[in-house]
Amino acid sequence: MRRRKRGTTVAAIALSSLMVVSACAKDSGGGDSGPADASGSGCEFAPPPSAVAATSSTAATGEKVDGSALKVGLAYDIGGRGDASFNDLAAAGFDQAIRDLGVKKENSREVSAAPNEDESAKQTRLRQLASEGFNPIVGVGFAYTEALRAVAPEFPDVRFGLVDSAVEGAANVTPLVFAEQEGSFLAGVVAAYQSRKCHVGFVGGVDIPLIQKFEAGYYQGARTAAPKIRLDKKYITPAGDFTGFQDPPKGQEAAKGLIDKGADVVYPAAGASGIGVFAAVKQAGVLAIGCDADQYNQPALANNRDVIVASSLKRVDVAVYDFIRAAAKKDLASLPKVFDLKVNGVGYATSGGKIDATLQGILEGYKAQIIEGRIKVADKP
């Protein structure tokens, strides 16, 4: 019962946060930016699942929660608010808390990490927020794991949320983790059906397990839909060099390399570097799929949004909002263990009108099979 209620709450918040970020693009072969229909791709498809009605949810009324007494601290990963990706989603959840819960912006603070900064800088950032009375505090990204391992025990009464990671043994750190591979599986299905060459590509920001989850789901979805599809990948930087999340020129270079090999649909999981991926896709006249949020509606991508045919959604905004709401209620145990398709913590968006009703039905069919457990999506390539 609790899980069902959570799903409607998540869906309601997600509807108001689709103006944030994600990224997608498709190939036209001859400069035609129009989409292929479900039977017009260059791939030979496996029998699709039975179509089901598109999921719809209505906003749950729920109890009114007062967060006006909270002092909320947000510690962003590199790029901060305005990265047109991961951090902007967290910012959207914070903004939603201000609107819905009465959290006072003047009593809250947003701080950001620098690329490849020393670990002590993260500890200092979190320690300063906690010392100044901010509670709850959200570490936006796994990069804060080690810092919280050191800082959280020093402030046992402060409630910390940690996006994309967990701290073993720290009772005051709530992990906010996602089944990114499930949303990416659906992105792979879209890519297969939209590709005219049956050849798709993946650009990862940094070669780490978290981004490999996106790769694994994307490849599995594409191959499930079209078993003979060709897939190529490129990571911008190796593990340990996190500039791969904040380097649009290198993102553009990586995407161009995949396109030159023949990929006509490119899916980036690369943070702000995705901006460069979309630029390369636009220049080549092919297509892309957004990541993390509905990037078709992201203002920073307005010039290239016509190549974005769909987006996988990782609802960091929902997780941040729900964490703040649960902190206000003093009920953190109500949060899901994993934000997955079952609770609408991940999903997909089709803004732009390039996905027809047939493909929409196929996507909903695969989505239902994942939720029912008939398809198990791998989290490793």
From TrEMBL:
Subcellular location: Cell membrane
Pfam family, one: Bmp
Major subcellular location class: membrane
One GO CC term on file: plasma membrane
Residue ranges annotated for the ABC transporter substrate-binding protein PnrA-like domain, each copy included: 77-347
InterPro entries, per database record: BMP_lipoprotein (IPR050957), Peripla_BP_I (IPR028082), PnrA-like (IPR003760)
Region (Disordered): 25-59
Record's signal peptide: 1-25
Record keywords: Cell membrane, Lipoprotein, Membrane, Signal
Topological type in the membrane: Lipid-anchor
Protein family (similarity comment): Belongs to the BMP lipoprotein family.
Protein name: Nucleoside-binding protein
Organism: Lentzea xinjiangensis
Organism taxonomic ancestry: Bacteria, Bacillati, Actinomycetota, Actinomycetes, Pseudonocardiales
